[in-house]
Amino acid sequence: xxxxxxxxxxxxxxxxxxxxxxxxxxxxxxxxxxxxxxxxxxxxxxxxxxxxxxxxxxxxxxxxxxxxxxxxxxxxxxxxxxxxxxxxxxxxxx
Length: 94
Prior knowledge:
CATH topology of the largest domain: Arc Repressor Mutant, subunit A
CATH class of the largest domain: Mainly Alpha
CATH superfamily of the largest domain: Winged helix-like DNA-binding domain superfamily/Winged helix DNA-binding domain
Number of domains: 2
Largest sheet: 3 strands, antiparallel
Oligomer: single chain
């Protein structure tokens, strides 16, 4: 994300993107509502800043989700191996 290198105006953020300025503003509004980004308006120029603390919260949540899904996929792999070789994973003998 561009803002990791420092503050940027909305125009600077929008320039390289293949979407309209109103679409960029909508995306920025979502990021601001979530607390990940803040902006300040000085005259006609709106400058955006990243919120590192909020990113830390998001990173911790994403890591927890990743660990949960890795565990689920590991359990699925064990189950599929058992099914493949005719075993059971539900504790019932066949």
